[in-house]
Design a protein that fits this description.
The chain contains eight helices and 19 strands. The protein has about 425 residues and is of the alpha/beta class. Helix content is about 25%, strand content about 30%. It is globular. It folds into two domains: about 210 residues, 3-Layer(bba) Sandwich (FAD/NAD(P)-binding domain); about 160 residues, D-Amino Acid Oxidase, Chain A, domain 2, CATH 3.30.9. The structure holds flavin-adenine dinucleotide (FAD).
Length: about 425
């Protein structure tokens, strides 16, 4: 088994940088490149994204790879708008990047003992279809055991009363980040990979960001800075002696990759022991199992799958399957961190995934910081940040990232970034 959270320090890419930009975006995850794409779609070219490794190498390539409203978030009515937004974005992304965002059938079993009762699942699925406002990827249906076993032959029949089928979106998260990044660069913004932001300071002429590219350091100035560093967001504040506006927390999620278990549908499973939802998914010729949810207090660079998380996932999974998976079935593991604003009144899995934006102001110079967010809804978040920056500059332009013409044409990932080789490198 290989653990796959190596980060790349690496050599500088040689991207030529100006001394000044209108906007500097720190972090080349989906949010960083998404905001660059949003600004570029408004005609802004004077934008720099800096990424210490390669774009998408952080959280944005460690997700469950779902483009979804988040059926499980329907447990909290406060999150209904978040679900509706995700479903709208799912519909849009599947038309803007149809080769990367595709529909996947899911099986949601009703357990004989424990788990959610059938009527509750039915209400949840009805609500999920309804919130998609006619742009669902297919309405839910009740499946006969034979039909369910055809799509998921590894299910243990003796555990279930019956099965619902519903539809959601699946993606290759890294490919999506790279497509958005490419779309942004084709529109004129600069993305500098292997370029680390060390610190931020402010003086009369704007924000100064100290960058390190290999052995070289350089100070670059901008009127607006976006801290889209996700789990690393407060690291740079600490180095810069900037007080964050809110407390952040990292919530670790671990996944296992095993051989193809013959699934043609994803499994949406609820652990009877602790009520947590997890997925078993067909993905790129493998089966993906995840995720865990644990508070993570270590350095973000050191976040790797822990033995107890691996065991947790194997045990939970085996409760539902006719085959029994062991450590030796695991080909790779990977772990990422959900970067959230701390809600003192919530536990980890009930902390809302709604994003939060904070702003440090120095006169008219602004420093934005992002908390929370979802791969699925990155475009909506990017639009909010893009609009805030444009308005602050007196520009009434509109985001155009919903227009196919703003998107790079389909291409394939370089060979060394294909599954599963890429997990050993990024
Ligand atoms: C386990 C897990 C599963 C998830 N599953 C889903 C899902 O199925 N669907 C969904 O919609 N959402 C999912 N999410 C949420 C989604 O993945 C995140 O919201 C999203 O990827 C966050 O992107 P980001 O750009 O904010 O952060 P990141 O992708 O982490 O980007 C931050 C970037 O900053 C870079 N960086 C760090 N320090 C520096 C520095 N000093 N200088 C320059 N660059 C630096 C990092 O290398 C990194 O690339 C999941 C999250 C987790 C953790």
């Amino acid at each position: 088994m290989e653990n796959t959270n190596e980060t790349t320090a690496g050599k500088a890419t040689g991207t030529k940088l100006e001394a000044r930009y209108r906007v500097i975006i720190l972090g080349g995850g989906i949010h960083g490149v998404g905001i660059a794409h949003d600004l570029a779609s408004r005609g802004w070219r004077d934008v720099l994204v800096v990424e210490k490794s390669i774009i998408g190498s952080g959280t944005s390539s460690k997700s469950t790879k779902l483009i979804h409203g988040g059926l499980r978030y329907l447990q909290h009515p406060r999150d209904f708008p978040l679900v509706a937004e995700g479903l709208e974005e799912r519909a849009l992304l599947s038309t803007l990047a149809p080769d990367i965002v595709k529909s996947l059938p899911f099986i949601f079993p009703v357990m004989k003992k424990g788990g959610m009762p059938r009527f509750m699942i039915k209400i949840g699925l009805w609500l999920y279809d309804t919130l998609s406002h006619g742009r669902s990827m297919g309405r839910h249906v009740w499946l006969s055991p034979n039909e369910a076993l055809k799509e998921a032959p590894i299910l243990d029949k003796s555990v279930f009363k019956g099965f619902y089928k519903f539809f959601d979106g699946q993606t290759d998260d890294l490919a999506l980040v790279r497509r958005v990044g490419k779309s942004a660069t084709l529109l004129g913004v600069t993305i500098a990979e292997r370029t680390k932001a060390n610190s931020i300071s402010h003086s009369d002429d704007g924000w100064h960001v100290e960058l390190r590219m290999g052995e070289e350091t350089k100070i670059v100035t901008a009127k607006y800075v976006v801290n889209a560093l996700g789990p690393w967001a407060h690291e740079i504040f600490k180095a810069s002696k900037i007080e964050p506006k809110v407390e952040g927390l990292n919530n670790q999620g671990t996944h296992l990759m095993v051989r193809d278990l013959g699934l043609t549908s994803g499994l949406f499973l609820q652990s009877p022991a602790d009520g947590r939802i997890f997925f078993v998914l067909p993905w790129e010729g493998y089966t993906l199992i995840g995720t865990t949810e644990d508070n993570y207090t270590g350095h973000p660079d050191d976040c790797v799958a822990q033995p107890e998380q691996i065991e947790y996932l194997l045990n939970r999974c085996n409760q539902f399957l006719s085959i029994k998976l062991t450590q030796s079935d695991i080909i790779k593991t990977f772990a990422g961190m959900r970067w959230l604003a701390k809600d003192p009144n919530s536990g980890l899995s009930s902390t809302s995934r709604t994003h939060l934006l904070t702003v440090h102001e120095k006169g008219s110079d602004l420093l934005f910081t992002i908390y929370g967010g979802k791969l699925t809804a990155y475009r909506a978040l990017a639009k909010e940040v893009g609009t805030a920056i444009a308005r602050a500059f007196g520009d009434k332009s509109k985001s155009q990232t919903d227009q196919p013409v703003m998107w790079a044409k389909a291409d394939v990932l370089p060979l060394d970034l294909m599954v599963p080789q890429r997990f050993s490198k990024i």
